[in-house]
């Protein structure tokens, strides 16, 4: 039976990475979401490493005795996950860039129902103040222009 | 071996067919990408590849009725190597999805021809579409949790590209939301796999089915809920469904159609597979029932409130996922069988509906129900094509939607619990509200006097033809409903007895049929439970 108690350092690293990841995923800017996604994926990759038990020799028959081998399966899964993360990161970056090209910001935009509700509220307010204004933009344009203003004047 | 022997072997042992639905589209995707300068060649490759997939799926559908067809990939014995398993459930899903992807491909080819391929980067459409199809097939056939994850990632990565095709402002907006939500679900799935490996030392589904009952029930519940959470986001179960009606309608019509038909159903498939095989004692049933109830009711109320035909149909999609979850939550053979039947019916009907809505948009020049009108007079065939799947979705007898719902309601009544009976009531109400929403759409789009008379035009014949063939496929499910319902009941019976699956993958409950070295037995079991393990009873 091999030693399966996880190393404290690894567990702490997982905790930190996943906490950071969750925090960043909740941000609106796509770049931060991407960083959060990468942090979380790495945290989970470490989790796989812990799941595989203590480190041992290279799992090659003839080089290491079977009882001293480290478990190769989690390593293969981590490799696959790293490749997938890389591909998705590239795609997310491209999307953030495209969003910046189109709208000069890279925030995850409101969905159209949200904008519809916001527009209804705005219409109510206008009626209350007796200052009717024509709505000339589409919901899509509304969604693209509505965003948190972070870091300076970018309306 | 002489050639006749080989031929005989290939006819009796069909395991060589199992990887084809994954391998063929993947290789074709590479080929299509290499030939991006030759759109004609790409089209031929895609059509041929998906036809091969359909034929392979049909072969497996027949073969799997005698028992699951298992392939240990690369001849590595099962718990160490990856295995592909084609049982009744997965082959049925595979066949329906192959038929649907082929129809949608032809539709999109016709659309591309009609539009002269302007403004759409079709060079990447074909390879991506093929990868999507391979991912779906891989998810259905996988006998291994990690391979299931890879299948999901394949189809999701392809869907990200398809959804943001062309990179217009609204597609980027919808795509961002879709991608971020999908990423969260993938991360949760990966987390669940990591924890499962830590707890049991395996990711092979059959071996998991043996080992999971041995671990602490509390840990089991955590793993079960994590998997459910990941799949529920993909299947768009309320309250995890808000992303769907917002992201699907912005994509091109054929893309929306294939997403609506397949992607959520892959999530439902994964729920069925894991709930029946890994967690057969049904501890999440109450939770699933409540989720099913809310999905049905909230989804259909969303549809009733919509004024845009694409969004309306997207909301009905969410609502009808509720029926499938209801059947799963009943944890009975009858309920599960009806649920599987419903999934198969819903894939064809929902895809057909989205294709027809694409035609409506094309003919009427809008998707807003305020601007559409008078289409019954302008395009009578289109009116019929919309009417048939719409009524099928609402569950009007004798169409298959009615049969599926009747089966689910019967199973609910047979269960007899208060929650199940509430769900039966909610199912009927949802069905009526679906009828209301869809009839409202039909009246406005086809009967009301058109506010703006659309310019006269002819719809491309091949687009109408492929949409019509999908509508016919939906109707033909009604015709073959008897044998098909029996098939799904048998599929459910297999699922309710996990032992059949285990034995077909690991004949002696330890190793598969591959020839890998015996050192495999020394693979460290990462964490066996501390208490002495009892031999599980057969």
From TrEMBL, chain A:
The residues forming a coiled coil are none
Location of the region described as Disordered in the Swiss-Prot/TrEMBL record: 131-155
What PANTHER family is this protein classified in? ANTIPORTER SUBUNIT MNHC2-RELATED
Q: Which domain of life is it from?
A: Bacteria
Say if the entry is tagged with keyword DNA-binding.
Answer: no
Q: What is this protein called?
A: Na(+)/H(+) antiporter subunit C
Record's subcellular location: Cell membrane
Basic and acidic residues composition bias: which ranges? 144-155
Any Pfam family hit: Oxidored_q2
Gene Ontology cellular component annotations, sorted alphabetically: plasma membrane
**Which family is this protein grouped under?**
Belongs to the CPA3 antiporters (TC 2.A.63) subunit C family.
TrEMBL record, chain B:
Q: How does it sit in the membrane?
A: Multi-pass membrane protein
Q: Where this protein primarily resides, as one coarse class?
A: membrane
Domain (NADH:quinone oxidoreductase/Mrp antiporter transmembrane) ranges: 142-433
Q: Which InterPro entries does the entry link to?
A: CPA3_Na-H_Antiporter_D (IPR050586), NADH_UbQ_OxRdtase (IPR003918), ND/Mrp_TM (IPR001750)
Q: Where in the cell is it found?
A: Cell membrane; Membrane
- Residue ranges for the region (Disordered) are 513-538
Q: Name one GO molecular function term.
A: NADH dehydrogenase (ubiquinone) activity
Q: Show the stretches that span the lipid bilayer.
A: 16-36, 43-64, 89-110, 122-140, 146-165, 177-199, 219-244, 251-272, 287-305, 312-330, 336-360, 381-399, 419-442, 463-485
- Biased composition (Acidic residues) is annotated at 519-538
User: GO CC terms on record?
Assistant: plasma membrane
Which of UniProt's keywords are assigned here? Cell membrane, Membrane, Transmembrane, Transmembrane helix
GO terms (BP aspect): ATP synthesis coupled electron transport
Q: Does the keyword Cell membrane apply?
A: yes
> What does the sequence similarity comment in the record state about its family?
Belongs to the CPA3 antiporters (TC 2.A.63) subunit D family.
Q: What is this protein called?
A: Na+/H+ antiporter subunit D
